[in-house]
């Protein structure tokens, strides 16, 4: 590893030009969310409340009425992994990096396969003490300040991996905004982006920003309707860890 000067990078915010009453994530069924819960039904605002200023992996996630939706907790004995829990405290997902560069992250679903015939990942399951099934892969591109989400699917006849293979088409892209404060936006890559020419411009499906003060450490997130809330919680935690590591001047 080498140390480098902190660079403020990323794209231009599209928050103001997104019509949040119209924008949608195009998930119409709970089978397409990472936790099999119903997608967001309307434009919503949630907060991720950080437990302490130093711990980058532990949050309570609440709606506008302050009702608990999810929580995240660091996996004991690791420096990057974390678990996502439901409002009743049930295990939903484990998120862990798959390489030393922290560019590749796997999202595992506890106990529930992602497709028919899927086998659990033995190594990950042993460490977790429960059956873990591969759900999605997040690929972080450090120098371009974005990350792409790829689902896991069944292998084709030429492949021999019953735990699942990463499919080639990204279902979501997260982009860091060029800003002093931590700000991010997400959109569906297959639909293009607002900065691209043409009349069918794809609005954002989420936007989140850090709100920090002496005793406040939280993320405020906008979500379009038909969006996967659990996935965006995972992405918010991941993006903050990447930003924190970059701010420390560490690059691979």
Task: Give an account of the 3D structure.
With 252 residues, this protein is mainly beta. It is built from two helices and 15 strands. The protein has helices at 122-128, 229-247; strands at 2-3, 44-50, 59-62, 68-74, 82-86, 91-97, 104-110, 132-141, 146-153, 165-166, 172-176, 183-187, 206-213, 216-223, 250-251. A hairpin with a 2-residue loop joins β13 (206-213) and β14 (216-223). It is globular. It starts with a strand and ends with a strand.
Quick summary:
The protein is mainly beta and about 250 residues long. The chain is about 10% helix and about 35% strand.
Which key terms come to mind for this protein?
252 residues; mainly beta; two-stranded antiparallel ribbon; 15 strands; 10% helix; 35% strand; disordered N terminus
Tell me the number of strands. Answer: 15
Low-confidence stretches: 1-7
Q: How helical, in percent, are the residues?
A: 10-25%
Major sheet: 12 strands, antiparallel, barrel
Structural class: mainly beta
Shape: globular
Order of helices and strands: EEEEEEEHEEEEEEEHE
The percent range for strand residues is 25-35%
Mind telling me the C-alpha Rg? 18 Å
